[in-house]
Design a protein that fits this description.
Number of helices of chain A: 5
Number of domains of chain B: 4
Low-confidence stretches of chain A: none
Radius of gyration of chain B: 23 Å
Largest sheet of chain A: 8 strands, mixed
Mean pLDDT of chain B: 95
Strand content of chain B: 15-25%
CATH architecture of the largest domain in chain B: 2-Layer Sandwich
Radius of gyration of chain A: 17 Å
Number of strands of chain A: 8
Shape of chain A: globular
Oligomer: heterodimer
Structural class of chain A: alpha/beta
Chain lengths: ~160, ~550
């Protein structure tokens, strides 16, 4: 898995989290990622047993439904069922900009190198991909200029022009 | 005209590098065609019947002489010496090689041109009134807002993988020369009672297999809140637009399935929830952009040009003046439309030599500015009437003096089966055959305004639904047949044409169109356009005119 590091670079890391299936026994306390259904059924118990929790949202799940629990979540994994399905971009932006989520926003599913730039701009910070850290870093650093504000806090051209003059 | 600064240039150059890398990975096989396809489309590159086609963006249809010369160079060096202007004010090269496209894009970037987002499921090139900035009837210059939208929508990280393509058009006049009601979002700029700039926002227009006319979703939107409102619409669409069926994925289907009121409410809720200071255009940036579109100083001219009036005693020039020159907001000037629809021409095609000659004429007579129209013609927006005759002679020398703007031979046609992998039938030879029926200018002018639009398939790139006469190519057991529709319009009185009757054979289409025109001449009332007569009388008299002889299925 790749993550954005503090300095804005990209690092390959071991995934601390394991996916806990809907029917699987919970076992000992550890970092796990749950489906939304399992999260709704089991989160309170797992938290009380000391689990660190993440939730995986399907493309049609609404991040609004998680809002109340966000401060207690370590990871929100957003699924790209096909890379062409761009709903997760909006989900990520809302998590960061509307709900101020500070945990990990992870891209899972059909995660394409050529979307790395857009993902980082929308607030994704971790990526389940086979791409190398070097390729990922090059892709997200591709553009010296951006035109819009987004969840990454980069200064867009219109603000750069305003501060220059 | 908007001029790139270093920031705009940097982005376009970085885009070329990114695409060069993607093409190399595709050619090496590390990127599959399935993965490459949406990426190349967002750089304007299509795979067609005979090979790759590159669609170059002409932002809101505005070109300089220098840019047009650069396009001529591309046509000559990397294509077969010509290009094709499209209904979305872009330019297509139909014969490029995949391996050469990065070089073409690098060359275009040196001239502040690109192919970004001319295709793909993203926000496409914004289109506008080709008379913008020169038209007498506009509330303000719509190009300013097109440029604002261009920057906001370019490489938008949240809205680059939408359910389907997304087209925005802007006008600032009551007379709609941008077909705004046929776009995913149509914007009409006007002024409210206090004189402030406001937008009327239409949503859900579009053609294709289920044509819709855009519906009003917001009145009196303060102009400086445009980008946040667009963000709200796009966000609702990105989340809720259908992704299960390609043919139901446009926003028009979402709007019709939710109902306009429910859709509008979702947009309003999202708009209220987002932070406008993050998105809306700053006053300083708006002023910077607006300044770049300030009308270049036009020397004052007398209201009546003696040279122009004298030249109008010549019948050929008089006809050109009647049909191809529109009034300009500055006294003594005109807006000249150059027809790319000469008899026998392919609608919208322009050779490299013609592009260079037009660039020269624009330099001499129109402050080096050229526009592309959605009807696939070109416009020189700032021509002194004193120069109009010289310009006319210059156009005649390159075979582009056809005086047929908005007349029957000014036909919109998609490339059709001659080029396109999606087409069922040819469009170009049909257009040429129809145009020949109106070769006699006296007959053509007698018929007057008549918009004929031809699409080679249901995707409707030739806007047939909006034609006063619409022609749709269909495949009937391997034969090319054509369905006729009547009564459509893409203007302020926008309407979807109604099917007239059974499809006719390729060889009978020109007969049918001529029969419709002749029937109109028989039954019209004074001052009535073809469209008005159709609307008054309905299809019956026209049906009879067409189906007396035609071979139909």
């Amino acid at each position: 898995m790749l993550i954005l590091s503090e300095d804005g670079g990209v690092r390959a890391v071991e995934d601390r989290f394991t996916v806990l299936g809907d029917e699987e026994g919970a076992g000992r306390a550890r970092p796990v990622i749950l489906s939304r259904a399992r999260f709704e059924a089991d989160a309170e118990r797992l938290w009380s047993e000391g689990f660190e929790l993440g939730v995986r949202l399907a493309a049609d799940d609404k991040v609004e439904d998680l809002a109340y629990d966000l401060p207690r979540l370590a990871v929100v994994a957003l699924e790209f069922p096909k890379f062409r399905d761009g709903r997760a971009f909006t989900s990520a932006v809302l998590l960061r900009q509307r709900y101020g989520f500070l945990g990990e926003v992870r891209a899972v599913g059909d995660v394409l190198l050529d979307q790395a730039f857009a993902m980082v701009r929308c607030g994704f910070s971790a990526f389940e991909t086979r791409a190398s850290a070097a390729d990922w870093a090059r892709a997200i650093g591709r553009y010296a200029v951006v035109y819009q504000t987004s969840a990454d806090g980069r200064q867009p051209a219109f603000l750069a022009r305003a501060t220059k003059s | 005209m908007y001029a790139y600064d270093g920031l705009d240039r940097s982005l376009v150059r970085d885009r070329v590098d990114e695409f060069r890398d993607q093409v190399a990975r595709r050619l090496a096989g590390s990127l599959s065609e399935e993965q490459f396809k949406p990426l190349r489309l967002m750089n304007g590159l299509y795979l067609q019947l005979h090979g790759y086609m590159l669609r170059v963006a002409i932002p809101y249809g505005v070109l300089s002489s220098a840019k047009l010369r650069a396009l001529a160079h591309v046509a000559r060096r990397w294509d077969r010496g010509y290009g094709h202007f499209t209904t979305r004010q872009n330019l297509q090269f139909h014969w490029v090689k995949l391996s050469e496209t990065p070089d073409i894009l690098a060359y275009l970037a040196e001239h502040d041109l690109h192919a970004i987002q001319t295709s793909g499921n993203c926000i496409r090139n914004t289109t506008t009134d080709p008379f913008a900035g020169a038209a007498r009837d506009e509330a303000d210059d719509p190009r300013v807002w097109c440029e604002v939208i261009r920057q906001w929508s370019t490489l938008h990280p949240e809205f680059s993988y939408l359910p389907r393509k997304f087209k925005i058009a802007v006008t600032a006049s009551a007379k709609d020369r941008a077909a705004i009601k046929a776009h995913d979002i149509g914007l009409r700029l006007g002024r409210d009672a206090e004189g402030r700039l406001v937008f009327e926002v239409l949503v859900g227009g579009g053609l294709g297999r289920t044509p819709h006319i855009g519906a009003l979703v917001k009145k009196d939107l303060p102009a400086d809140r445009l980008l946040s409102f667009l963000t709200a619409i796009l966000r609702v669409y990105n989340r809720e637009g259908r992704r299960d069926n390609l043919y139901k994925a446009r926003i028009k289907i979402l709007v019709s399935e939710l109902g306009l009121a429910a859709f509008a409410e979702k947009v309003e809720q999202e708009w209220a929830a987002l932070d406008p200071t993050e998105i809306d255009i700053l006053g300083t940036e708006l002023a910077r952009i607006r300044g770049q579109f300030a009308l270049a100083k036009l020397d004052p001219r007398p209201a009546v040009s003696r040279g122009f009036e004298a030249a109008r005693t010549r019948e050929d020039f008089a006809r050109f003046a009647r049909n191809n020159i529109a009034p300009h907001k500055v006294q003594g000037y005109g807006i000249v439309t150059i027809s790319l629809k000469g008899i026998g021409d392919t609608p919208g095609d322009c050779t490299a030599d013609q592009m260079e000659a037009i660039a020269d004429l624009a330099e001499s007579y129109s402050q080096s500015e050229i526009r592309v129209t959605h009807a696939q013609n070109l416009v020189l927006p700032n021509v002194a009437l004193d120069d109009a005759l010289a310009l006319f002679e210059g156009l005649r020398a390159i075979g582009l003096a056809s005086a047929n703007i908005n007349l029957a031979s000014d036909i919109i046609a998609c490339p059709g089966l001659d080029y396109c992998a999606l087409a069922n039938a040819r469009a170009i030879p049909i257009a040429q055959a129809i145009a020949r029926r109106f070769e006699d200018p006296i007959f053509e002018e007698a018929v007057g305004e008549l918009q004929v639009k031809i699409s080679g398939c249901i995707n409707a790139c030739g806007h047939h639904h909006l034609g006063h006469i619409g022609i749709l190519g269909v495949d009937k057991k391997g034969e090319e047949y054509y369905q006729l529709t009547l009564g459509g319009s893409g203007a302020e009185d926008a309407a979807i044409g109604a099917v007239l009757g059974p499809a006719v054979a390729a060889g009978d289409v020109a007969d049918a169109v001529e029969a419709l025109a002749r029937r109109y001449l028989e039954v019209r009332q004074p001052e009535e356009r073809f469209l008005d007569t159709v609307r008054r009388l309905g299809p019956t008299p026209f049906k009879a005119a067409v189906y007396e002889h035609a071979d139909t299925v």
